[in-house]
Amino acid sequence: MLNWLLEIFSDNSEKASLITTALTTAVALVVVYIAHRLTHVRARGELKTKKIEEIYATLRKFRMSGMKQIKGKLANQSPKENELEEYQESFEAMEMLAFLYMPSIEEDVKKMNMAVVMALEGKEFPFRSSKYTEFDNYSAFFLTHASSLRDELQKQTKKVA
After folding, report:
1. Reduced 3-state DSSP string for the chain
2. How far apart are CA 121 and CA 55, in angstroms?
3. Would you say residue 14 lies in a domain?
4. pLDDT class for 53, splitting at 50, 70, 90?
5. 38: pLDDT confidence band, cut at 50, 70 and 90?
6. In contact, 73 and 119? CB cutoff 8 Å
């Protein structure tokens, strides 16, 4: 087999043809790989952007429903069933998205939920400060973590762009 190959490419013009074909093939493979890689990176960036947008929209809903619960407790109103369900759904969605796509924000989501649950149960705020009432502290705690989540999402958006 090797002898046969040597006989076929014994002439210099045939060797040049073989080298040209090999180089052309190598260049074509490199170009295909680069095109595939660029397409993959772009698709991944688009997917990540969509997920960040989804997390941000869910965070907004979670923040609004959580603050509604805390403000209702401040006004000594008992929570409405549909509002509690809305809050629970938004928390579960936020927790799921954080777990799946951004584990770095999962702790803040849990702390935000803790603030709402403790406020609804009427428990004393564990990080009490003299300048706030009990539930104002829950509000501040909740909003601080919401801001932290928003900042993290903005960082992730900049990384994608």
Report:
1. CHHHHHHHCCCHHHHHHHHHHHHHHHHHHHHHHHHHHHHHHHHHHHHHHHHHHHHHHHHHHHHHHHHHHHHHHHCCCCCCHHHHHHHHHHHHHHHHHHHHHCHHHHHHHHHHHHHHHHHHHCCCCCCCCCCCCHHHHHHHHHHHHHHHHHHHHHHHHHHHC
2. 27
3. no
4. confident
5. very high
6. yes
Structure tokens at 26: 């190598």
Query: Which domain, by its residues, includes 62?
Result: 53-160
**150 CB neighbour count, 10 Å cutoff:** 15
Number of domains in the chain: 1
Mean pLDDT (whole number) for 89-113: 85
Residue 138 lies in a domain: yes
- Residue 8 falls within a domain, yes or no? no
The answer to whether residue 7 sits within a structural domain is no
